Amino acid sequence: MNDTAPTAVAPALAPSTDQAPPVLYPLSDGIGSVALIQHSGDDKMIVNAARVSFGGDNAAPLTGRDEKLISYLLKHKHGSPFEHNLITFKVICPIFVDRQLVRHRVGVSKNEISGRYVELQERDYTPTQFRRQAPSNRQASVEDDGTLDQAAAHEAWATASQTAFKAYHQLLELGVTREQARGVLPLSLYTESYYTFNVRSLLHFLELRDHEGAQSETRLFARAIGQLAEPLFPVTFRAWRALHHEQ
Length: 247
Known about the structure:
This protein is of the alpha+beta class. The protein has helices at residues 43-51, 64-75, 95-101, 150-173, 178-181, 199-209, 216-229, 234-246; strands at residues 23-24, 33-40, 86-94, 108-112, 132-133, 141-142, 190-198. The chain has a domain at 23-125 and 188-246: Gyrase A, domain 2, CATH 3.30.1360.170. The strands form 2 sheets. The chain has a 5-stranded antiparallel sheet with strand order 1-2-3-7-4. A hairpin with a 7-residue loop joins strand 5 (132-133) and strand 6. Helix 1 crosses helix 2 (64-75), helix 3 (95-101) crosses helix 7 (216-229) and helix 6 runs antiparallel to helix 7 (216-229). Keywords: FAD, Flavoprotein, Methyltransferase, NADP, Nucleotide biosynthesis, Transferase. Catalyzes the reductive methylation of 2'-deoxyuridine-5'-monophosphate (dUMP) to 2'-deoxythymidine-5'-monophosphate (dTMP) while utilizing 5,10-methylenetetrahydrofolate (mTHF) as the methyl donor, and NADPH and FADH(2) as the reductant.
């Protein structure tokens, strides 16, 4: 008799022509990206996790009654049945975006490239259009009304970035350790991470980060994550969006 417990492996997403693309580029610069790595479970898993309380879980196809149950669970904030599905993304984004993503740690796992282990690539994000500070909100921005000197802003950004990368490489050439040299790099530097969400944590994340109050760049990444996840749990997302439309 073999007493060794089997290792549970989340199945990788199978290629399909009717699903969203496996990789999206939120900033349209060919660098910043969200890739769907793998997922486990589906809408039926959510239903079974809820029905097991009454011994009613089953392997039958999803029914209209099941869809109503998912809507009920979301409406009445019964969250635990949504925690049995996992979705893993690889996210390449500017550090200032990643800092806003990483704030969501309940039900979320994260591993990031380390500037202690590797020499970081000279990849940084430059806005195509700079925004102005919102006059009535300390953490918000508004579109440029034509009074912002866009050319001067781009020049200042480029100069700061070039200076930072030059200093980084000089420090490395001098023999300074990578863990210290990275300290001069800008927040616009691209970093890359694996993020794993359960569906409950993902919906909470989307409520906050794909919201009109979120920073524009962060919202684009959140929206890409949602677009890749929605085809995997279509009933759940449809019910979730309907609920928010009602509210």
